[in-house]
Amino acid sequence: MKQSFNPLNQEILVSIGGDLLPRAEAKVSVFDSLVQGGDGCWEGLRLYKGRIFKLSEHLERLRHSALAMGFDSIPSAEAMRAEIQRTLEANHMSDGVHIRLTLSRGIKITSGMDPRLNQEGPLLIVLAEHKTPVYSKGGLTLSTSSLRRFPPDCLDPKIHHNNLLQSIMAKIEANASGADDAILLDMSGFVAETNATNLFLVADNQVHTPRTVACPEGITRATVLELCQTHQIPFQVRDISLAEFHRGDEVFCTGTMGEIAAVTIIDGRQIGNGEVGPLTRQMADLYETCTREGGEPVLS
Question: Cβ(31)–Cβ(75) under 8 Å?
């Protein structure tokens, strides 16, 4: 586990419903929908030198999730940007920051599942922490989970919701096997994603990634595909079996928390020569350039 407590986060202020509260006092009600049933949606954002990479895309995905979940009201993108900025400035944060942006359905008048019990509107939470990317750049170990990712007719992965039990259970299996993370297959037996990231396979100098049938529309994933197109790197989006990953030349995973990280072992099998491959390094370098030169300014 690469993540650990950063003393810089001891005195952070967290925005909950527009109130900036010290870490020790940053709490939600036991009647909040997040506590009652994981009823909310979230986004992970990263701040690079005063800019948040792909902020508009993240806010739009949050809005799409809230719409799919039937939220009665959703804060505007402008309101969420303003609250993010206020939180960062209150914490004197400008770089090397991860932001967990959460939108709960809000507080219920009494305990229960019925959304009609939520009569105060949604609750926006902005949690900004000093945090570097969480994955080792030297290569990750993955193991295949016994769990399967839901298809759209069970629980559509396009909804980026707070009920993460499926991912947590898969992570428990990975921990037990000594792996860094777990691979989850879809109901047809094809690779979907890991418990926390999208997956890419490199074979014969071509990049391959699973379709978004049983995995979310990852924003870092989309950025990698855009980079492939821009730099004329051949790629395919298709169903991919686990055996193809086992025999791949290179494998890497993508996500806001870990950026682009190589995978060197899957289910005890060495991937390629067991080192970070050249195409993975190229994609990581291209992505680093994007985050350094792009992003939306959020600090005044």
Answer: no
What 3-state DSSP class applies to 149? Answer: coil
Confidence at residue 121, expressed as pLDDT on a 0 to 100 scale: 92
Give yes or no for a contact between 231 and 287, defined as CB atoms under 8 angstroms apart.
Answer: no
Stretch (H or E) spanning 77: helix 77-90
Q: Is 244 helix (H, G, I), strand (E, B) or coil?
A: helix
124-183 confidence digits (pLDDT tens) = 999 999 999 989 889 999 999 999 999 999 999 999 999 999 999 999 999 999 999 999
Domains and CATH numbers, the chain: 7-130 (3.30.470.10), 140-293 (3.20.10.10)
Q: What residues have CB less than 8 Å from 176, skipping those under 6 apart? A: none
Could you tell me which of 151, 238, 163, 148 has the C-alpha nearest to residue 199? Answer: 238
Contact (CB, 8 A) for 47 and 298: yes
Strands 206-209 and 250-255: unpaired
- Position 1 scores a pLDDT of 61
0.70 cut: is pTM over it? yes
Per-residue pLDDT at 3: 83
Low-confidence stretches of the chain (pLDDT beneath 50)? none
Residue pLDDT, tens place only, 63-73: 999 999 999 99
Long-range contacts of 134-138 (CB under 8 A, 24+ apart): 134/2, 134/3, 134/257, 134/258, 135/2, 135/180, 135/253, 135/257, 135/258, 135/259, 135/261, 136/2, 136/180, 136/261, 137/261, 137/262, 137/276, 137/284, 138/262, 138/264, 138/276
Tell me how far apart the 2 most distant CA atoms of the chain are, in Å: 58
Residue matched to tokens 């067991």: 274
Cα separation, 21 vs 28, in Å, equals: 11
